[in-house]
Amino acid sequence: MRKLVFNLHLWVALILAILVAIFGATGTIMAFEPEIDHLLHWKLSYVTPQARPLSLAEIAAVISKAYPGDRIGGYQMSTSPDLSYQVGLRRGVIYVNPYSGDILGVREGGQDFLGWVHQLHLRLTLRNQADVGKSIMSWAGLAMLFLLLSGLYLWWPLKRISIRRGGPPRRFWFDLHNAVGILSLVFLFVLAFTGVLIGFERTVVPWFYKITNSEPSKQPAIPPPPPGVKPISPDQAVEIARNALPGATPFQVNVPGPKGFYFVRSRFPEDLTPGGRSRVAIDQYTGQVLATESSRTGPGGTRLVNLNRAVHTGDIFGLPSKALMSLASLMLLVQVLSGVTMWWKRIRRKPTAANVAPE
Prior knowledge:
The protein has a domain at 2-36 and 114-212 and 314-349. Helix 1 runs antiparallel to helix 7, helix 7 runs antiparallel to helix 9 and helix 9 (185-199) packs across helix 12. By secondary structure, the protein is α+β, with helices and mostly antiparallel strands. 51% of the residues lie in helices and 12% in strands. It is built from 13 helices and eight strands. Strand 2 and strand 3 form a beta hairpin.
């Protein structure tokens, strides 16, 4: 049995080595995706905090003057005082100092480096109707679970954790593979398991709602606009959302067309995900709240989906958990390097009775 498990572990690992390395390299970066994005575009991102930010109406006036005739699609207000606001236009995203109204620059549409990393991690950058790339990575994640469990089985008899110094190179790589594998096992298992749930979300998400006896929130019905009534302003929509979800901080609002509604995203203090998990839909003409969904009281299935994603990305506990998940992803690269090196040294050795069986 041990020899069978060893051979399965070896060949699955060799076949998936490149995909596992991609998981590791991209996961290490994605754990700090917002922070890296701010550093890569620091002139656009960082501002000096002042007493009071401008209203969205005041920022809109600045944008309209600088880009006349270009319709504003939405605003992203930073929840950190040292970060800029973002205003969406057709030409791209305009970065604005929320205190002075100064335009810091424009990021035009198109995929940047972090977007490419994200798509490589999720679907090997293969975009098509069948989403073949996502299927490949999802099954690779499932195979990773097998590698972790089979690796634990192979490690158990020796329970080797230390790395012997002064021995032959192959022993060093063997010890490194064992030590790193067992020390990062729990974190890698959590990453792989939550990633598989995300990869097979079309099947998994209905299960979440079934086991919690809940249903997804429905799209709000939009009442017809009253004749002769002007829309409320984005500032008013943000204030209505703030009152609808006390304790949550609004950070993103769209500017709807004539038949749309305001959609305000908010974040509670314990919600550390960049996208937020709470939202409010508001009638743009009457200010009526059409729907709310709170990360604290939303449907059980939705909260399970959010929890799984927060655990996978490391957002659940903020910086400490992000650092752990980033380090665990980096350990995947160490495992690939040490495993492939051991295999290469193994096949280069002259076959003898001493090296037929696995160590």
